Amino acid sequence: xxxxxxxxxxxxxxxxxxxxxxxxxxxxxxxxxxxxxxxxxxxxxxxxxxxxxxxxxxxxxxxxxxxxxxxxxxxxxxxxxxxxxxxxxxxxxxxxxxxxxxxxxxxxxxxxxxxxxxxxxxxxxxxxxxxxxxxxxxxxxxxxxxxxxxxxxxxxxxxxxxxxxxxxxxxxxxxxxxxxxxxxxxxxxxxxxxxxxxxxxxxxxxxxxxxxxxxxxxxxxxxxxxxxxxxxxxxxxxxxxxxxxxxxxxxxxxxxxxxxxxxxxxxxxxxxxxxxxxxxxxxxxxxxxxxxxxxxxxxxxxxxxxxxxxxxxxxxxxxxxxxxxxxxxxxxxxxxxxxxxxxxxxxxxxxxxxxxxxxxxxxxxxxxxxxxxxxxxxxxxxxxxxxxxxxxxxxxxxxxxxxxxxxxxxxxxxxxxxxxxxxxxxxxxxxxxxxxxxxxxxxxxxxxxxxxxxxxxxxxxxxxxxxxxxxxxxxxxxxxxxxxxxxxxxxxxxxxxxxxxxxxxxxxxxxxxxxxxxxxxxxxxxxxxxxxxxxxxxxxxxxxxxxxxxxxxxxxxxxxxxxxxxxxxxxxxxxxxxxxxxxxxxxxxxxxxxxxxxxxxxxxxxxxxxxxxxxxxxxxxxxxxxxxxxxxxxxxxxxxxxxxxxxxxxxxxxxxxxxxxxxxxxxxxxxxxxxxxxxxxx
Length: 682
Known about the structure:
The chain is an alpha/beta fold and about 675 residues long. Helix 1 (about 35-50) packs across helix 2 (about 50-60), helix 9 packs antiparallel against helix 16 and helix 14 runs antiparallel to helix 16 (about 365-370). The protein is globular. The strands form eight sheets. Strands 4, 5, 6, 7, 8, 9, 19, 20, 21, 22, 23 and 24 form a twelve-stranded mixed β-sheet that branches.
């Protein structure tokens, strides 16, 4: 605001926000290849060679002493590369890990052994903070950046032990619309390329494990359709070196069938038939293949068309990998044994007699556990300011439960100690990710949060107040776009958090186009809507320093009592529809009704609910902004993730395989073959 001239380096055609400069200041665009010193000289030379430009200065600066400001437009990936991460073994030592508890994956990241929980079992847990958000625009409102900025403020500036716990990003959004999930600006996990691409291979392990189960299903159906009981038995329990024995997983199946025998030759023909015949109903197989790519053309496919499959043709489809039940199990397990048990209990379909068929019945759950044995360990990384981050699991919040792993949170809470802070993030809006954090993740973990940080942005509140869906342009109608937006969506999301008895601090993620009047008004209204505090955050441009006010507000809020409670004991779907979304009621399709009856018969009625719903609205209609009321929530179908431990209704037209837009992010992502540097990733 004090500069007479602003030199923009590498800004392209981007306009400078009017709040950044004086009205009479000169703006000079320079080529991005110029260095700062050269750009300054070029600017002065340009001023002195063009009298009409010089006049703008000379009329106010008679002594020819100019104040000139150079502004550099730097991408997230350039900021990430400008900081050299500390070696991961140094980071591990700083946070109290022993060398034998670390499995390094290169220089910048490492898996952490679960034995740490045993070593620190008597250590008191730290403060538990959840970052959620208002209903977002399609570009997101910055929950990841707020999470990272907050822990940078707590650790690097307030010198308090703190940990961020984040989900691993899926390649779907990374190459689709939203981009990566490492944060942005000066609030990032680094190196961001490693964070956004592959990481330590956990999602690939989930993909392999999920598709192994799918292959086992189709292979078993083929073999049962083409072989006699005796032939099946001889192949399932072969004679090796003159000895025939059941494997441990086959013994488990015999026990579930009520057969206590362990000698293969002692089974009766009826027992042999019961053992070898899963008799899966092809029309009631619920398990699908997965791929970590947005590919709409795989939503419905036909398999078994080759002649070698002998007419075993059926319709199936693909989900995105992070929607796999195995991902949910990874996120909710609290030990390797717990994960193995949950994998065994995954229901893949129904037999023709109406009974559930599990991964253990298929004989595949042990092999799946082997594929997942390294994935269960959280990955240690760091922020731009060198503070620790656990990256683990990555379920979406709209089609899964949308939270990082229980194990990452538990490990972090022990490492930070009684006075420390663990900041974990729930996906999308509070009506989806936060509700599932409370009702699903907290049930599984036994952990209770101290405070919720609710992220809001001016642009999203404008949208909810009646503005365009996504607009970075400045809107001057404060009454329309703020009072409406704040009193509808922001107020509703604060109320949802209060349903669970947890205090709320609103973090306003400030963008360069926001005015002081807008920022002050949003914070004021948030407090009148029930927030314990509401503060502006400048972490994107200032890092942890820009989140100090939020850190102090969170620290203060954790001193207040948290009267945590679950939302529902019974009538779960209707309770969520009415109390969280604001619906008048729900409407079950005939298929959903029959599924409810079936799941109740199988004893799954007590499981919590994981709603699969659009994240772009509190309702099932993505174009309904603000806090809509008076609608009926349609439940199209209901599926069971028995191993993960929840039932998930499909709301409206929700799909578990996203599609690519006309212009995906991958148009901008490339590799320099000389330097091996990645460009275009954000």
